[in-house]
Amino acid sequence: MKPVTGQKPHISVAPMMDWTDRHCRYFLRLIAPHVRLYTEMVTTGALIHGDKDRFLRFHDAEHPIALQLGGSDPKDLATCAKMGEDYGYDEINLNCGCPSDRVQSGAFGACLMKEPDQVAACVESMAEAVQIPVTVKCRIGIDDHDSFEFLDNFVGKIAEKGCKTFVIHARKAWLKGLSPKENREVPELNYNRVEEIKAKHSDLNIILNGGVKTIEGIFSVLSLRKQGSCETSMKDPRLRGESITPFDGAMIGREAYQNPYFLAEVEKEIFGNKQTLSREDIVLAMASYAEQQIEHHDVPLKSITRHMIGLFHGQKGGRAWRRALSTLPHEAEAYESGAKADIILQALEERQSRKAA
Asked: Of the residues 98, 111, 122, 163, which is catalytic?
């Protein structure tokens, strides 16, 4: 498997509510220096009427990083896009794919796929307000609006207003009857429809999202080589070596969170980076980061360690590591209030002792 040479491909970690906060992103950046990171979706209301610094601040190490916004009012989205640019984000992404009850009640997220003219107006307003790229993340369809023509109309109208990059989750969204979790699993993946969009709109950057969880899958998404027969969880001809139209990138979702060191493999195989940190070095770096966050920002330790539980996924001693961070290694009161970063180091020692046993 040959590493990518020349221009680096767009490989990113999906914006995931309650997961990809700034502590998670700092952790993932230690593992993968070249992967693009996205914030959780932040609503325009939270930024305009709330504590914007709480939602927008991030560590310089997180670059390249995109701010994902949720909203449907062009003026508000333009205001928040400018906030993001002023804070130093590299990209502003509009969420048109989230199916949760919260976004449905606010008439944004996946609901916006039925309103392409409104989305086009939003994108136009945002693009006029900032100098950084404005992108859109969407589904292939919504409820009974499930056809190539529907998606093509949506993409085409927004592209006319200057949006050049679309991240397309290759599942449609069912707004009634399925939970957000079920919407990530139940609707069938349809890579062919996204491939048809790329074939028709060859001038656009189309990033494929949904079910990407192996190196073989990423190579096939990028059409860097034919795969032959390989074991993947994606039931699609593209991942059996029959890809025709290359996508411009791949977005990785839950695999990057539940098995984060997979991103080190991405660094090596996709970006050709052989200087990745070991899991142990990442633990030491995170212990130092946690100490600073606790001391200077009064951040509870559990807000950091909860993102690290999967670091030793599939490794000997991994269960001891998970137990040390996901349960209370000391008295509950000490862990919940005033816990120190040395708990991370103790978890590593526990993992190493179990590994040697």
From this structure: 98
